Amino acid sequence: MSFVLRSSQAQTSGRRYGFCGIELAHPIVNGSGTFDAIAARRAFGDALLDRFPFAAFVSKTVTLEPRQGNPPPRLWELGAGMINSIGLPNKGLAGYLADDLPQLAELPVPLIVNVMGSSPDQVATLVAAFAERDEVAALELNISCPNVRTGLLMGADPGETAALLDAVRPRTAKPLIVKLTPNCASPAAVAAAAEQHGADAVSLVNTLRGMAMDPRRPGEPWLGGGTGGVSGPAVRTIALAQVREVRERVRLPIVGMGGVQTGRHARDLLDAGADLVGVGTESFRDPLAGNRIAVELQRIGANSGMNGATSQPARPRISQNS
Ligand code: RRO
């Protein structure tokens, strides 16, 4: 049995979006780990390929060795989002190359592979393995997972990020996107280090570390991993502020994400300085959210806060001097 896809595909105006030398039909991509394209293809069949919700597909994080992930429970729902403690379960590099890569290569959009290691050498090995694969358009370095012990070792400190880039940059000519954490003193300083040491783009925000207590076991955390990563509308304003801060510090292209549910939210991130927008938690609610958001964004157009006839703000500010 396959399910029916109901949403219309993003109608692009013919305009293409350039990102690190990759041509995209619109500026909406997925956040790594929030859309399982292989499972979605099983559910929706080839209709998924005709109605693919994103302009590029970012894979779930791959590590060198297979991982089972964190013990359950792995999710806690909030009024304005959720906390995840997935712990990056994956088949490891060999399993990914054998099973997942051939299936992901059939998607109708460029493939960005997200990788993570617990040392620069490990990340360099992963990057080198994908460097020669034509199926892969770019690599995203996950230095921002809040849910594993070593997740933030290289992402919370500009010097560690610089050392990682020094190890990894010589291993590939493909674009390298560095996924930044909001769980550090200065994401903009980490972005600047990434830029100076050869990154091609940055993406932000990954999830914010958070915790929920078990309602039936006083003093005990709900999540099997103890803490988790907060995402969804709760983090949207934080993402906006951090994207703006990073934009003021670096010239690199930015993939902005955090709580995007509508075209308006995407427009706001673009206006804050992002070049592309990632949709994450919203895709769990609606797998075709990416498509809907791309259509909404296109309808809004640029400079949507302005009155088109006069180029004046649609709603004037109240004067602070009167
Ligand atoms: O798998 C996860 O628990 C996870 C990862 Br790799 C990540 O980068 N961000 C997140 O919120 N969860």
What are its keywords?
single chain, four-stranded antiparallel β-sheet, alpha/beta, binds ligand RRO, eight-stranded parallel β-sheet, 18% strand, 322 residues
Descriptive account of the structure:
The protein is α/β, with parallel strands linked by helices and 322 residues long. Helix content is 30%, strand content 18%. It has 10 helices and 16 strands. The strands form 4 sheets. It has an 8-stranded parallel sheet with strand order 3-14-13-10-9-8-7-4. A 4-stranded antiparallel sheet has the order 5-6-12-11, with no helix packed on it. A hairpin with a 4-residue loop joins strand 15 and strand 16. The radius of gyration is 20 Å and the shape is globular. Mean pLDDT is 92; it is low at 306-311. Bound molecules: ligand RRO. Residues 33, 61, 84-88, 142, 144-145, 147, 206-207, 229 line the site of ligand RRO. The site of ligand RRO has 14 residues, from loops.
Task: Explain the layout of strands and helices.
Layout: E1 17-19, E2 22-24, E3 28-30, H1 37-44, H2 47-50, E4 57-58, E5 75-78, E6 81-84, H3 92-104, E7 111-115, H4 120-131, E8 136-142, H5 158-168, E9 176-179, H6 187-196, E10 201-204, E11 208-210, E12 228-231, H7 236-249, E13 254-257, H8 263-272, E14 276-279, H9 282-285, H10 289-300, E15 306-307, E16 312-313
Parallel strand pairs: 3-14, 4-7, 7-8, 8-9, 9-10, 10-13, 13-14
Antiparallel strand pairs: 1-2, 5-6, 6-12, 11-12, 15-16
Helix pairs in contact: 4-5, 5-6, 6-7, 7-8, 8-10
Bound molecules: ligand RRO.
